[in-house]
Amino acid sequence: CRGFTAWEYACTQPRAILWYLRLAFWPHPLCFDYVRPVLRDWTQFALPAAVVLLLVGVTLFLLARSRPSALFGVWFFLILSVTSSFMPIADVCVEHRVYLSLAAVVAAVVLGGYESGCFLLRRMGGGARVGAALGWGGVAVLALLGGWRTIERNRDYRSQTALWESVLRVRPDNLRAKLFYGYGLFTENRVDEAIAVTQDPARAGDPAAHLNLGRFYATQGRLSEAKASYRAALALDP
Fold it and tell me: Residue 2 has what pLDDT?
């Protein structure tokens, strides 16, 4: 029912992993339901795969040299391997899969930033007070930016309609998002809008979309159209 093989899933994961890493440094745009396409052409996955293999290679090199910094790569890839390797899961890219691995990235950036800052201060002759001022200033800027993005993201969760509308801003062709967005509009008594949004997943052959359309039409007293939608739903899913 997934429509892709273990190999195709594995070929798609490098791009997903790089997307997770990109979001770790600036979380925008965020999306509750990506429904990313599966990559089947080698020209699409060759470059992301090469970058990920390079990162894995660096991790193995550091591990072979018994370098403590290897922990970050092992931590990141080992935890993520459960969901981002060759074992197919219905969705090829979901942000919450990287939450545990993300701690390794954060730790590496914090420790790397601290060591780099100390090195630069020594070279520039800066004292402890200068280092503390720069450090706390950087923390304050990051906290403000992160807090702003958190407030913005929380607005997307204020209702079912707002959440799925935010998905469609990022993935306008996401039929699953249109299905749930349409139902959210229906619960807010915006039935005409709900019908318009639900047409796309219905045309794509989604029985749940036809079922929803039947309910929407029935609410408006359009019984012949409601019956046609219910029949279509039954034909697709007896």
Answer: 59
DSSP state of 86: S
Rounded Cα gap, residues 177 and 182, in angstroms: 8
pLDDT, one tens digit per residue, over 25-38 is 999 999 999 988 89
Whole-prediction pTM: 0.87
Q: CA 2: distance to chain centroid?
A: 18
- Locus of tokens 């990313």: 36
Q: Alpha-carbon distance 22 to 24, whole Å?
A: 5
For residues 153 and 28, give the distance between their C-alpha atoms in angstroms, rounded to a whole number.
9
The DSSP string of 50-95 is HHHHHHHHHHHHHHHTT-TTHHHHHHHHHHHTTTSSSS--S-S--G
Question: Distance between CA atoms of 23 and 174, rounded to whole angstroms?
Answer: 20
